[in-house]
Amino acid sequence: MSVEIRVPQLPESVADATLVAWRKDVGQSVSRDENLADLETDKVVLEVPAPVSGILRELKVASGTTVKSGELLAVIEEGAALAKPAAPAASTAPAANTAPAAALPKTAPAPKTSPAARRVIEENKVPAEAVAAASQGGRVGKADALAAAAQPASPASAPVAPASAAATSSGPRPGRVEQRVPMTRLRARIAERLVQAQATQALLTTFNEVDLGAVQELRARYKDAFEKQHGVKLGFMSFFVKATVEALKRFPVVNASVEKQDIVYHEYFDIGVAVSTERGLIVPILRDVDAMSFAAVEQGIADFALRARNGTITLEDLSGGTFSITNGGTFGSLLSTPIVNAPQSAILGMHKIQERPMAVKGAVVVRPMMYLALSYDHRIIDGREAVQFLVTIKEGLEDPGRLLIGI
Q: Which of 158, 285, 295, 373 could lock 349 by a disulfide, CB 3.0 to 4.6 Å apart?
């Protein structure tokens, strides 16, 4: 019996998707729930599982095609099995130049390849040996695929110019390679949203700095007991998230958004935490953070990071949000001006913790300092509110006891 494979129902916020790559070819056997294809949306990569076991009889859509919910992708012949080739007749004559089976080289297993990397490999026709070299025995990411695509052709396949011609050549020196790779849907969407935010909002950034000595001491004192009890490490982000919620409660306009001529005040606190992936930056949302414990925040962030790396994060995880936090310090950034994630009205930027000499009670001491940045929409948030909001976060972090008793 023939079974049709169609595009899964996409959320209302996603109009279409791009079929990045087929994982199976026509004539190959497939197992129930095995991934047949990767669909890339503006936010995540979705898998198309096989509903039944059988043989893939027909592909209706080519890789790179834009598809919509319910569109026919392929046809599987349920229960069919590949015919086994007949065994060759035994020969009494010895085969010439045939090495013993034990001497045959073993084929290394193909490295796991991410959807974005497969797209780069297919579009640039990257040789299998170059991909295998880039993987170093592990998983091939987009950056690995781009690096493999940028490698010049091997000497064996490249034509050799006569010595005299090489000596007199006035053309560009070898190795000047250019690669033209289309943006992924996620990267294109990120670009669109960032340009839109700068074009439609009156963006301004205010800065402050925070002494994280008290937070570091608290973490050092309780980190082992915290991890033993909750099964997750006590990081910095939970302190920043909880301090942010207290500041949002005090300055609700920072938690608001603009909708035409209205200001929409959100009486809940859904905080987006930026996570970097090989496909680009995504911002999964922690819901109702005011009701979450430090452990719940850390567990939520750890879960997002794991699923972002595995490609299993969902559209629901990325939808909504009233405020965002991004940590450029993870990559060594000392100071930056983050761009607001519209339709939100503000975003907090964390940076690298750096020991610096500071004046404390008339003495110069070395303290672990971090610069904070708050980018905000000046249409609804005044400078006074933005500065006081950032000061509230600073006070909560420099005296973490405030976060526990809510002052």
A: 373
Element (H, E) at 6: strand 2-6
- Taking the CB of residue 275, how many other CB atoms lie within 10 A of it? 20
pTM here is 0.66
Q: Using the 3D structure, point to which of 78, 97, 130 is the last residue of a domain.
A: 78
| pLDDT > 70? residue 165 | no
Q: What does the alpha-carbon distance between residue 211 and residue 371 come to, in Å, rounded to a whole number? A: 9
Q: In this structure, what token pair is assigned to residue 102?
A: 């034990």
Structure tokens at 338: 């983050």
Q: Which residue has the tokens 């790779």?
A: 181
Which residues does 148 contact at the CB level (< 8 Å), separation at least 6? 121, 126, 130, 131, 133, 134
In a domain, 163, yes or no: no
pLDDT digits (tens, 9 = 90+) for 138-160: 667 666 777 777 666 554 444 44
Q: Other CB atoms closer than 10 Å to residue 189's CB: what's the count? A: 15
Q: Of the candidates 12, 43, 78, which is a domain's last residue?
A: 78
SS3 content of the chain, % helix, strand, coil (to 5): 35, 25, 40
- Residue 60 buriedness (CB in 10 A; 0-12 / 13-18 / 19+): middle
Which residues are part of the catalytic machinery? 378, 382
Confidence class of residue 290 from pLDDT cuts 50, 70 and 90? very high
CA distance 23 to 34: 9
Q: Which residues pair with 259 in a beta bridge?
A: 262
pLDDT tens column, 299-341: 999 999 888 877 788 878 888 899 999 999 989 999 999 999 9
Number of domains in the chain: 2
Residue range(s) defining the domain that contains residue 64: 2-78
More confident residue, 150 or 92: 150
Of 147 and 19, more confident: 19
Residue 85 tokens, joined: 């080739």
Distance between CA atoms of residues 79 and 22, nearest Å: 21
Strands of the sheet with 54-59, listed across from one edge: 2-6, 72-78, 54-59, 29-30
CA neighbours within 13 Å on the CB side: how many for 186? 20
